[in-house]
Amino acid sequence: MKAIRQRLSRSRSRLGIPQALCIACALAAGAAQAQECIPTPSGAVYWLAGERNFDDLAGFHNGQDVGSGVTFAAGEVGDAVHFDGNMQRIYTDTAYAEERAVRTAFTIEFWAQPTASMPSCEESNSGGCALSMPWAVFPEHGANSAPPGEENLAAGIGVAVGTNGVCAGEHSANLLPCLSRLDAPISGWTHVAVVVENKIPRIYLNGVLAHTGIASDREFVFASWTVLGSVGISGYGDYVGELDELTIYDRALGDDEIANLFAAGSAGKCKPDCAVERTDDLWQGAEVTANTPLESDRADCMFGATDCAPEPTTTLFADGLPDGTVHSVEWQTATPVTLGSLGLYALHESVDAERSFRHVLVQAREIGGDFATIYESNVVVPYGQGTQGHELLRCPRVRPVHAQQFRAEFVQNGEGASSGPRVAELDGIVHDPIFADGFE
Question: 394 forms bridges with which residues in the sheet?
Fold first, then answer.
């Protein structure tokens, strides 16, 4: 068993507290240097931290860019997601039915640094004037995945943010207005929270209630988080700027909780632990059944094997292959297992990012079945974690899957004499029943 390394972490100095509204000035002044992260409020069902990936820290609704060009930038809490307004978007692994289940009362909160304004749109529960809003969270159409007879009863709620204010909008058939519209200058990193109760959105800026909107006339409204930044259709509006720590809760957060989230500042919410190796690794000693050429003499190093050469805790794929080469390994457990999350630890050379990969894909299948993707993500190179900035550590949850055979692919970044990707750990973690439906 390899030694367990402690969680890697990075910190970033505070970038300054935004003071978008005079009503928030006193609170902003008192929230100066937050020293420690705060516990995440209960009820989180989705959390995009934006730490150079689109993983969901609250559940298994991990996201993908799908080629639109979303990038990363310095955030209020570590890194943030950057949208340039050219239909850049993130699609999350979220079923419409999962969104529709978060209704009655819910909260959407995040840090935003918009760089473009939003158009005028008066508060209303009819019409479609919010069509071209800069949607940080696009409001889902209320008819999607609706049971028979409910097609026109519901509307999804989303949030648009510009340099001139915030719109909490709803979306259903022939319906896309702002239920709540706050006109206020927003400059620099600003904490935004939208709380929905009794179908009425309330907008908080920098921890303070700033505006209460009007009620939807739909039978119910629900939280949206399938598409972030843009829906990808011309004329439907694109968010421009950065988003950080976007979190959805299946309840209405209280005023004190929202104030505390703002006051935490650059320390943010405490993130889940992510160890390099876990004692509950389901793949420890798994049998490797196939792999592409290696520089190491064994592919099972990443599953806990010992005496691997040339480096004792590392699988090295073959060198000297072209940029973009897909390296892969397949393995099998002794009996079927129910997987709930992954643990990935990799390193590249500190100079020129040699032995790195820019995309990872993990698949699973039952014996005799077809492989199905359970996790896929781009990887920013250089990796940017660890004391020297060349380590990668991911612990994403995945939709629970019962399988015995698994496959992983790593897309090589760059080429040369030492270009085969290095993977130190790939662990499979047992499914935690508390996340059976994605919600606590």
Answer: 344
